[in-house]
Predict the structure of Iron-sulfur cluster assembly protein.
Amino acid sequence: APQTRLYHEKVIDHYERPRNVGSLDKNDINVGSGLVGAPACGDVMKLMIQVDDKGIISDVKFKTFGCGSAIASSSYMTERVKGLSLEEAGAIKNTEIAQGLSLPPVKLHCSMLACDAIKAAIKDYHKKRAAGGKATKPGH
Ligand code: FES
Ligand code: FES
């Protein structure tokens, strides 16, 4: 089906042209960063989010020292979370990424890395805001 082909091309695209590679200013109080590793293979992913005053993720960047599936997963995740609230972004499951990219079961942990990374970045953001004495509850 034409649609399957289109979809397939989109997946390949994430491998070949990963989106939002890079990093954000870690000293910015509105930036949270998550650094996670996959025990299964030792691959590492760093994901940073920029949060606006409404609690919406306005920018996101990642660096992955890992396999192609981990790179595609993080690329996919960055596109998925941009414009979402922290709550919405934190609720994304790795299975959604794995299905979206048609990852084989053996590559499931690669999508978990992206899932863990966004959760760690959100946690770091909240921690930083609280420590900065300007703790707010975005989205409420
Ligand atoms: Fe470990 Fe992909 S093989 S992250
Ligand atoms: Fe989602 Fe670990 S796979 S938090």
